[in-house]
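C-ALPHA CELLS:
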Amino acid sequence: MARTALIDADVIHYSASAACQEDIVDDMGDVVTVAAAEYIWRHTVDSMIANIVKNSGATDYKLYLTGKGNFREEVAKKKPYKGNRKAKEKPLLFEDVATYLVDTYCAEVVTGMEADDAMAIAQCADLEGCYQEDPTVLDESLASTIICTTDKDLRMVPGWHYSWPVGDRIGERVPYFVDVLGSLQPKYHTDKFLKDGSPKLKKLEGVGLAWFYCQLIMGDSVDNIPGCPGAGPAKALAALEGLTTEEEMYQATLALYEAKYPENPSEELLEQAYLLWMVQEVDDQGEPIMWGGAA
C-alpha cells in the first residue's frame, strides 16, 4: 500500500540550519560564524527530505513543525518541562530554514502542543480502520502512514515508523511496525556483570504502550521529566517485563508510585503521564485529549 511519510520537520529544521554554518577566523583574527550559501542550505534540506521519503518507502509526505505554546508547560509541577536545556544561540539560518519548510514543503506549524503530537494524531486517525477483532492488534498492510523521526518518544505510537541515521552515533531504523501493546528491548553490556554473573543492563528501549509505561517509571531526562523517583531502566524492566496487557502495565507502574507517594500516587502518576503521552486525538474544538489511563 502507498504510504504517506509524516516527517518530523523539527529535526530537519535544527540539524540542517546547524550543519550549514561554520566558525572561521576573519582578517582581524576574530572567530566569526558564517552561514552557507542559500543554494547549499536549500540543497541540504531538499536532500534530507528526499532521502527520508525514499528510505521510508513512502510515496507522499507531510511535514510538521512545532510552533508556539505547549500544554505540557502548565502541566509540569515537579520540574519545568524541558527546563534543563541550556539557552543557546539559534543557528544563523534558523528562521530561513523554517520559512523554506513552510513555503516550499507546506510544513504544518503546530500550536498549543508539539509537532510530535500532530504526527501521532495523524497516524492514529489513519489506523482507525486497521484494527482486528482484538483491539490491540492491527493489520499493518492497511496502514497508509509512516512516522519519520529520530525522536524516541514517538515510538509509543502504533503504526509504521522509520528513523534515519544520526552521524556515527545513532544507526538507521529501517521501516518497522509497532503494535498497540509494543515491547521492551533491553541492551546489555558485554563486559560488565552483576554479582550473580548476569550481564549488566546498558540501556532500555521499547515501542508501543510498553515504552510509554517504561518512560512513566524511569522518566525522560532529555525533556526534564522525572518519572518515578529512584526508578531507572533496571527497575522499569523488572516491573514490566513479560506483561501482556495494558492493565498489568498500569498496575505495575502504579505500585511503584504508591511506594514513593503513598498519599497521592495516582495524581503523581497522572502528571508524568500527561507530560510523556503523545496525544493521539483531539476533541471537537481541536484541543488535545489527554491520556485517560488503562482501559
